[in-house]
Amino acid sequence: MAVSTLERPLAARPSTWFVWAGMAAFAVFLLGILIAVVVDSFGRQWFDTWFPEGLTTDRYTEAWDRFALGEVVGVTVFVAVTVVVVSVLVGVPAAYVLARRDFPGKRAVMLLFLLPVLMPPITYGIPLATVMYSFGLGRTLTAVVLVNLVPSVPFVILTMTPFIEQINPAIESAARMCGARTRQVFTRVLAPLLVPGILAAAILVLVRTVGLFELTFLVSGPGSDTLVVAIYRGMTSAGGGEARQLISAMSVIYTATMLVMLVVALRFVNPTQLVAQVKETRDD
């Protein structure tokens, strides 16, 4: 009896198995850390045993009250939303100019926008914080928003510029021939095409802003700390004498906040829309 061509032994190159083994090991390691932090946040005491001696939710209540996490979460959401909105309002028009106009020094401008994205934040964060304190903005929400805009606006520009370049300029020319002005072309013709790219860039900026520690830490203070900075301050307060379970509870709250914000953001955009929209406009 002939063996069907569909029945083939499962075989793969050693390099493929090595890659899959590495990915599996990373997943197990990451999952183990997450489980350990979550269990520790509910544990009463956990030293040299495989499981805590008892479980309780008191650590969350204590951390919420002791570190004023209600205010901290509110500050985090406010800073993230403000940075996203301002970055989009400034970055999209700037990306349009860079995508549609040629001018002397264009490459230098693109390199200038690239630097805050590639450079470690601490390298320009200290001089930036010095400027903020010189103008009396240190430890304020204004300073936190401004320093987060420094990498976020260039990030939106670099993300949106190639996206806009893929849109056929003939669409704009046709709109102008029909009597549309520049503002109308941008708001009524380009804006609907740019919505997937804008939403994708906004989600990336949201994640970067919520997780950005260095710049925020240098200029924030009581009443302006974001959640990631509050975790660090809680961990180092009293010479590191805070209960480990309190820090674990704060970390779980931070992770849950990130997940909620991402779920809400992804509710309005499908990441595949960006690729599909670019392909569709390019084919047109």
Q: Give the strand content.
A: under 5%
Any idea what the CATH superfamily of the largest domain is called?
Answer: MetI-like
What class would the helix/strand composition place it in? mainly alpha
- Taking pLDDT < 50 over at least 5 consecutive residues as the criterion, the unreliable ranges are 1-5, 274-278
Largest sheet features: none
User: Count the strands?
Assistant: 0
Please state the CA-atom Rg, rounded to the nearest Å: 24 Å
Report the average pLDDT across residues: 82
The end-to-end span amounts to: 53 Å
CATH architecture of the largest domain: Orthogonal Bundle
**Inertia-based shape:** globular
Question: What share of residues is helical?
Answer: over 70%
What's the domain count? 2
Element-by-element helix/strand order: HHHHHHHHHHHH
Number of helices: 12
The fold-level CATH name of the largest domain is MetI-like fold
Top keywords for this entry?
single chain; 284 residues; mainly alpha; MetI-like fold; 75% helix; globular; disordered N terminus
Notes on the protein architecture:
It is a single chain. This protein is mainly alpha-helical and 284 residues long. The protein folds into 2 domains: 2-56, no CATH class; 60-283, MetI-like fold (Orthogonal Bundle). It has helices at 14-42, 58-66, 69-100, 106-118, 121-134, 141-165, 169-177, 182-211, 214-219, 227-236, 244-266, 271-283. The longest helix has 32 residues, at 69-100.
